[in-house]
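Milestone 3.1: sequence recovery, worked example.
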């Protein structure tokens, strides 16, 4: 695991799960994080992009559903307009046209990335095993909290596609990125010991790997220190990990206590114009437990071959519900509307890393607020962050 000279990093085949590409902004086919990654690294490194057929289908479904919901709202407004004037108003946009245009848009997007869509290997899937896994909720199948429903069929098809693809290319450097622990964990188990295959939670984590390649460390050394960095920062079984030892969550809540308070009631522009003398009695109240997400550390730099600097991302996610006055315009919250608040922090820390990938002298450097959002919560958001609304 020593440092070596390398003229050019090896080629990598990158396979992405749906959650890595998910975009809240449906004006983009994929997340801005993906496009930022691709713009920065695809031209610098030899990376081939692979999308399982189910991943493309899920993205297409999400975007098409959003577009059709918009069409339903437009149709509703046309109905209102017709009622106001006692005239019939119509437009020419049909649902089938939207579906066709959305498919065309995604095909062009995939083509622009020179990506390949890999079909689900239906003929080689052990359907008896998959059926049994679904019945007994074996990974990647999981059980809903009510214990009445299971989920994971689409994930299982993605896993089968990934496993078959890896088997077909035994000596290729393949990277699979997914933040679904059940999916990635079972995929890793199915693949077994394969030095050519890597599993990451985020694009940032893979980007860290590529930056470490630039430092001309061996693949084995990079993978070893990335795995060790993950456990040294956060390990729920280790009270000596930096996350616990430095009381990171308590520090964040103390230093940024003003941000964690319940979002204040704000009068929207539409409401202020329509009712300038009427006080707003609406308010946002907590509608779910707070979720804390700790992501794998990202390599930042090293001052010499021993002292490495890492950045760990932590997200706080909570659902809020609005109650009170609301006129229903685009600028005003409906009573009962649910918003998702996301607070993203970057924890910078350092460690001395030995040639055997051992970590010593861990030190917390800084904690910074990276992003703060308070936006309309979608069903995709709730599923992504495993959030359940409390009963009103």
């Amino acid at each position: 695991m020593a440092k070596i000279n390398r003229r050019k990093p090896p080629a990598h085949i990158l396979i992405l799960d749906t959650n890595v590409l998910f975009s809240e902004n449906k004006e983009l086919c994929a997340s801005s994080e993906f496009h930022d990654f691709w713009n920065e690294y695809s031209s610098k490194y030899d990376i081939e992009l692979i999308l399982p057929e189910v991943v493309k289908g899920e993205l297409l479904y999400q975007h098409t559903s959003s577009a059709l919901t918009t069409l339903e709202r437009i149709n509703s407004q046309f109905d209102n307009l017709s009622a106001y004037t006692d005239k019939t108003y119509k437009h020419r946009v049909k649902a089938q046209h939207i579906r066709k245009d959305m498919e065309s848009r995604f095909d062009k997007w995939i083509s622009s990335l020179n990506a390949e869509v890999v079909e689900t290997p239906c003929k080689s899937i052990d359907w008896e095993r998959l059926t049994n896994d679904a019945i007994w909720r074996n990974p990647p199948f999981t059980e809903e909290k009510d214990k009445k429903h299971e989920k994971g069929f689409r994930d299982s098809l993605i896993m089968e596609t990934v496993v078959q693809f890896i088997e077909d290319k035994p000596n290729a450097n393949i990277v699979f990125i997914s933040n679904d622990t059940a999916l990635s964990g079972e995929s890793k188990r199915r693949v077994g010991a394969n030095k050519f295959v890597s599993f990451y939670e985020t694009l940032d984590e893979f980007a860290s790997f590529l930056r470490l390649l630039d430092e001309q460390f061996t693949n084995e050394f990079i993978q070893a220190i990335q795995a060790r960095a993950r456990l040294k920062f956060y390990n729920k079984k280790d009270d000596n990990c930096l996350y616990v030892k430095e009381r990171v969550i308590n520090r964040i809540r103390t230093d940024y206590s003003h941000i964690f308070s319940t979002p204040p009631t704000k009068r929207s522009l539409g409401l202020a114009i329509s009712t300038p003398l009427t006080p707003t009695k609406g308010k946002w109240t907590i509608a779910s437990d707070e979720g804390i997400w700790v992501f794998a550390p990202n390599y930042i730099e090293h001052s010499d071959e021993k002292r490495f600097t890492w950045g760990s991302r932590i997200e706080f996610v909570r659902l809020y519900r609005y109650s009170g006055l609301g006129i229903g315009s685009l600028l005003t919250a409906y009573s009962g509307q649910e918003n998702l608040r996301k607070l993203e922090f970057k924890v910078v820390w350092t460690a001395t890393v030995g040639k055997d990938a051992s970590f010593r002298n861990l030190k917390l450097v800084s904690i910074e607020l990276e992003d703060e959002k308070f936006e309309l919560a979608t069903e995709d958001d709730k599923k992504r962050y495993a959030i359940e609304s409390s009963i009103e």
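The first strand starts at residue 12 and ends at 16. The radius of gyration is 24 Å.
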